[in-house]
Design a protein that fits this description.
- The structure holds two protein chains of two kinds.
- By secondary structure, chain A is α/β, with parallel strands linked by helices.
- Chain A folds into two domains: 152 residues, P-loop containing nucleotide triphosphate hydrolases (Rossmann fold, 3-Layer(aba) Sandwich); 72 residues, no CATH class.
- Helices cover 34% and strands 25% of the residues of chain A.
- A six-stranded mixed sheet of chain A has the order 5-6-7-3-8-9, sandwiched between helices. Chain A has a three-stranded antiparallel sheet with strand order 2-1-4, with helices on one face.
- The longest helix of chain A has 16 residues.
- In chain B, α4 packs antiparallel against α5 and α11 runs parallel beside α13.
- Chain B is an all-alpha fold.
- The chains are: A alpha/beta, B mainly alpha.
- Chains A and B meet through α5 of A and α8, α9 and α12 of B.
């Protein structure tokens, strides 16, 4: 069952397309890694999937019941956030503001959902702590908990391990793997070869000339895939 | 106590006090978001634009509020767009702000009334007329009201505009609201504090609160409390010692900031010892 299906997309701005004739899809429960050099249009694709840019041509179909506002988005962290005075709970619960009705305060149900989301990510003991006192890896977990507030089905992660040390990065990958096993579809934009190699089911590789879309095994047998492996310092052993 | 009774026996002082409290409160709330977004300098730039507009208004004998408000609102929209494009925004703010100051000074001296210059730069309690007071009360009430209603939206657009946009929050709308409110606060606060000091009403409470509080809600509450208390103390000191009101209020803010700074340093050290 396809959760998202993109057909013959032309993406970019009025002065020209950055991506031409792109077709790919994500199954329910998929783990799709989106890789490619800088400037290949990854962030344009992310903005398009989020509904912030409309495609120049082509269309995106979401499974019935899903809309682009129900994507649990984990953006790249900004410098402003790192020392932002906010409790962990305030950050997480803000994830459901788009569905929030009524003028004031969050409801009890919303608060308990935020707590559940923190429990999923093993951060419940830090709910009352200040976001700025957390380590980089913990901050990403909190932002992932917030992303889960906006969705039950799909998370879109934009370079989630940027700036994390190797241990924190592999912890975060383990959590994402667990979420995926529990049935959440994962789309991840990444420079890092490890999630593509270890966890991904399908790969979308964007490059200036062409693109590759297919399952992981096919990808690493393809020219683009071999090049990525080599650039990341992985050599084939004979 | 007798000094306080004395102050409130004068209608114009009571009026100035009320307006000052409301303006301080509004400024402190908006300040939290401005400081966190690294927009502190916009408040400063706007106050200089306000001074320029005030000078021109007095030269042509126009109503000060009617000229300053639209000019400052336009400047706010302009500056905010500049800083969105980031690169060069900083320099442009400095250009606009010192340029406006020069125009204001020229306009005031062409008009030939130099007492006005002093009042515009450093504020004057006597400048708060009855109609000014009404306008100020309405604008502050509007600010407080919109802040409370859109508290969560302002929080999320400040913390993470990318996420907010993606989840369908109209971030531009709240940024626009914030810049309009800032412009209004600058214009009405300028009469009391003067254009050189008004930005301290926006920046000091937030900076002080951020030293003490660790959650957004507490930063907001402490910022609001600090602004009201600092205004009241500064106002009374200025009356009792015959000192300029604006500068007295800012001096109290400075003291509060230093206390908060020392507190946060001490707490950090205590924490390090624990670890």
């Amino acid at each position: 069952m396809k959760l998202i299906e993109c057909k013959n997309l032309y993406l970019g701005y009025e002065d020209g397309a950055i991506i031409e004739n792109l077709s790919f899809s994500a199954e329910v429960g998929d783990y799709l890694c989106i890789v490619g050099e800088n400037g290949s249009g990854k962030s344009t694709l992310v903005k398009t999937l989020l509904g912030l840019i409309t495609p120049l041509k082509g269309n995106i179909e979401y499974l019935k019941g899903l809309n682009s506002k129900e994507i649990g988005y984990l953006p790249q962290q900004s410098a402003i956030q790192r020392d932002f005075p906010s409790s962990v709970m305030e950050v997480v619960i803000s994830g459901c503001l788009n569905r929030h009705k009524g003028l004031f305060g969050y409801t009890k149900a919303e608060k308990s959902r935020a707590m559940e989301s923190l429990i999923k990510l093993g951060m419940e003991s830090r709910a009352k702590d200040s976001y700025q006192d957390l380590s980089g890896g913990q901050q990403q977990r909190v932002l992932l908990a917030r992303a889960l507030m906006a969705t039950e089905k799909l998370v879109l992660l934009d370079e989630p391990v940027t700036g994390l040390d190797p241990k924190a990065a592999s912890d975060l990958y383990a959590i994402i793997r667990k979420l995926n096993e529990e049935g959440i579809t994962v789309l991840m934009v990444t420079h890092d070869i490890h999630p593509a190699l270890n966890d991904a089911k399908t790969i979308l590789h964007l490059s200036q000339e062409s693109y590759f879309f297919g399952n992981k095994e096919e990808y690493f047998a393809s020219e683009l895939g071999k090049r990525f492996l080599k650039e990341a310092g992985h050599h084939e052993h004979h | 106590m007798s000094i306080i009774n004395e102050i409130f026996s004068y209608t114009f002082l009571s009026r100035a006090f009320l307006v000052g409290i409301l303006v301080s409160l509004s400024a402190s709330l908006i300040g939290v978001s401005l400081v966190l977004r690294r927009f502190s300098m916009i408040g400063d730039g706007l106050s200089h634009v306000g001074f320029g507009a005030l000078g021109v208004a007095s030269l042509f004998a126009l109503s000060p509020m009617a000229v300053t408000l639209p000019v400052v609102v336009l400047a706010a929209l302009f500056l905010l767009n500049l800083s969105k494009k980031s690169k060069g925004g900083d320099g442009s703010i400095a250009l606009i702000s010192s340029g406006s100051l020069a125009i204001g000074v020229l306009a005031v001296s062409l008009g030939g009334v130099n007492t006005d210059l002093n009042a515009y730069l450093f504020g004057s309690i006597l400048a708060v007329s009855k109609s000014d007071a009404y306008i100020s009360i309405v604008l502050s009430a509007f600010t407080l009201f919109s802040y409370v209603i859109f508290y969560h939206q302002i929080y999320i657009t400040t913390f993470d505009p990318a996420f907010s946009k993606a989840t369908g929050i109209k971030t531009e709308r709240y940024t626009l609201l914030l810049s309009l409110l800032t412009a209004m606060i600058v214009v009405i606060g300028m009469r009391i504090l003067g254009s050189l000091l008004i930005s301290s009403l926006i920046i000091f409470p937030a900076m002080t609160a951020m030293k003490v509080a660790r959650s957004y809600r507490n930063v907001t509450i402490i910022s609001a409390l600090e602004s009201v208390i600092a205004f009241a103390i500064g106002f009374i000191i200025s009356y009792a010692c015959s000192l300029p009101t604006g500068a007295s209020i800012v001096a109290v803010h400075i003291v509060f900031y230093i206390v908060a700074f020392v507190y946060s340093e001490l707490r950090m050290r205590a924490r390090k010892k624990l670890l």
